[in-house]
Amino acid sequence: MAEVRLGGVTKQFGAVRVIHGVDCTIADGEFVVILGPSGCGKSTLLRIIAGLEQQTSGQVFIGPRDVTLVEPKDRNIAMVFQNYALYPHLSVFENMAYGLKVRGTPRAEVDTRVRRAARTLELEALLDRRPRQLSGGQRQRVAMGRAIVRDPQVFLFDEPLSNLDAKLRVQMRVEIKRLHQSLRTTSVYVTHDQVEAMTLADRLIVMNAGRVEQIGTPLEVYTTPASTFVGGFIGSPPMNMLSGRLSASGDSVELGDTAVALAGAFPTHAGRPIVLGIRPEHMSIGGRSRLSASVELVEALGADTLVHATTGSAKDIVTLRLPGDARVDRGQRLAIDVAPANLHVFDRDSGQRLGR
Amino acid sequence: MRKRVIFNDKALPYLLLLPQVAITLIFFFWPAAQAVYFSTQIQDAFGLRSQFVWFENFGAILSDPNYLSSIRVTVVFSVSVTVLAIAPALLLSVMADKQIRGATTYKTLLIWPYAVAPAIAAVLWLFIFHPSVGLLGRFLVAIGVPWDYALNDAQALLLVVLASAWKQISYNFLFFLAGLQSIPRSVLEAAAIDGASQTRRFWTIVFPLLSPTTFFLLVVNLVYAFFDTFGTIHALTRGGPGTSTTTLIYRVYVDGRDNLNLGTSSAQSVVLMLFVIALTMIQFRYIERRVHY
């Protein structure tokens, strides 16, 4: 086990720059999820840690060792691929034993370690089968088995669950979490699925367009998104974003002709254009309302009712998450109330969060 | 599942099959049947009279020392051609599969020899190896090597093997390249992370995954060496010196065309036919069992 440290890592494919300088430290034994939309560079970053891709500049450390120019095989890592990447002509046993055999492990030890890994992953009955005789979930477990038998310093996961159906995905997610809790091996996990990210991660690295937008625990990222991107990307339905302007005193937001009071003041940005972010679940109806909106669409999901409405002042579309028993009809005018503590203020030009 | 087509009229499906069946019957089955028929006949040189002799022709060829020597030549020739056509093609395709500058140009150039007609290919090799006009041939003679494929059995065989293998490399290259490209990159990356060196990855992962392709090419190349090398041999050595480059297919031609011995010539083609049928059957059975990973 070891910590993983990236220092100013960049990557260019020809003239296209896909990673713009990433710095981060992943602590020993930590489970870190890199989250971002397709094409944000998260897989490339993982492949740079693995050594499958050569970074254009910057350094990679695993433990105390600078592995920037070290071959993948000498980095003491294991990787689980999206399409499993099992060796199709080898049995499950041979698939798991390959890495050990290649490294010249004695036969008896190979056998013990493969069987132990197979027991952990409930693959004992399948050891003689070929990958094509396995279901998707079983293949995924073999891929994990191949990673754990070698007892590497770091596990790398490249969207390992995206080829599974929804039910299996939930099940495997729990298995990965349990595996990590028992092995405590430093893990880096790439995904675009925010539920996977929120449930698995000790810490999240949210990436967008080749840059790290925010690093923090899932809850930190959720409650205090560092930018409009993070606010909009994490949470479903996404955070409502309303364009407005800070008042001259900087302690309230003017949305068209309505003013919304803030919990704190931002005197340095007084009078500047901002974006006001409000989570759907933080909006309620009634009370001493500031925002008025008319209902466009109602989605009753049982536990919750999602209401899509157009605000009267700025003609923005907002989504509200109301309790399942809320009675709302199309065309109805709503008076929306938000607690000032649940408002997020972002600079409109940079998209960066203002305040804490 | 493919959609089932329902014909209301019984005649239409047969009518649609007719062209294919007609071509097969006229151009494949009829000549084959003729060969089988002639293999049981003895004819005079002008084809005026013929006599039914059961399997006498087969007995005759199998006790003919010339025929037995042709079998030996064919075995050496076809095994050498197959090995020399497959091994370099595999090497070249592994090289071409890497991400290198100008890969497309490289691939295109490697496919060209396949487009060269056998006789032209033979002439090209003549210009290299002819003892008095060939570049390499003259060089060999100049440094004192007694090089003359018109006199030396082994040299003649070497030359036809080289020329025949060279023509087939492009074909094998294409198949190997396609086979290599169908191996998922991530499988090789997984092996790299698992700690296997480049050479080890090739022999433990790439080569086994290419084995269906290799087996297919083995059969195709054997068939090629047996049947499609007539033009090259004819243009380079005409089966000589002596009978040192007379393969079975060349003997069929010599006995049939030059010696006008239609009976034994047909018997020889029937033997070749049986050989091809056997090869094809082995191949189909193998493909059904093993190809799909």
Largest interface: A-B, 25 and 19 residues
The CATH architecture designation of chain B is: Orthogonal Bundle
Structural class by sheet pairing and helices of chain B: mainly alpha
Report the principal-axis shape of chain B. flat
The level 1 CATH classification of the largest domain in chain A is Alpha Beta
Side by side, the strands of the main sheet of chain A go 6-7-8-3-9-10
Main β-sheet of chain A, in a few words?
6 strands, mixed
**What Rg of chain B do the Cα atoms give?**
24 Å
Gyration radius of chain A, rounded: 24 Å
Tally of individual domains of chain B? 1
- Per DSSP, the total helix count of chain B is 12
CATH topology name of the largest domain in chain A: Rossmann fold
User: Percent helix among the residues of chain B?
Assistant: over 70%
Q: What is the second-level CATH architecture of the largest domain in chain A?
A: 3-Layer(aba) Sandwich
What is the typical, i.e. mean, pLDDT of chain A? 89
Main sheet record of chain B: 2 strands, antiparallel
Keywords:
heterodimer; A: 356 residues; alpha+beta; Rossmann fold; OB fold (Dihydrolipoamide Acetyltransferase, E2P); 2 domains; six-stranded mixed beta sheet; five-stranded antiparallel beta sheet; elongated; B: 293 residues; mainly alpha; MetI-like fold; two-stranded antiparallel ribbon; 2 strands
Overview of this protein structure:
The complex is a heterodimer of chains A (356) and B (293). Chain A is elongated, with a radius of gyration of 24 Å. In chain A, a hairpin with a 2-residue loop joins strand 9 and strand 10. In chain A, helix 2 packs across helix 3 (107-120), helix 2 (92-102) packs parallel to helix 4 (136-149) and helix 3 packs across helix 4. Chain A has helices at residues 42-50, 92-102, 107-120, 136-149, 166-183, 194-200, 218-223, 228-233, and strands at residues 4-13, 16-26, 31-35, 57-62, 65-66, 77-80, 154-158, 186-191, 203-208, 211-216, 240-246, 252-255, 258-261, 273-278, 283-285, 291-300, 304-311, 317-323, 333-338, 344-347. Chain A is of the alpha+beta class. Chain A has two domains: 4-229, Rossmann fold (3-Layer(aba) Sandwich), CATH 3.40.50.300; 238-347, OB fold (Dihydrolipoamide Acetyltransferase, E2P). Chain B is built from twelve helices and two strands. Chain B has helices spanning 11-38, 56-62, 65-97, 103-111, 118-129, 135-142, 153-181, 185-194, 198-227, 230-236, 248-258, 262-290, and strands spanning 41-43, 50-52. A two-stranded antiparallel ribbon of chain B has the order 1-2. In chain B, helix 2 (56-62) crosses helix 12, helix 5 packs across helix 7 and helix 5 packs parallel to helix 10 (230-236). The longest helix of chain B is centred in the N-terminal third of the chain and has 33 residues, at 65-97. Chain B is flat. Chains A and B meet through strand 6 and helix 2 of A and helix 8 and helix 9 of B.
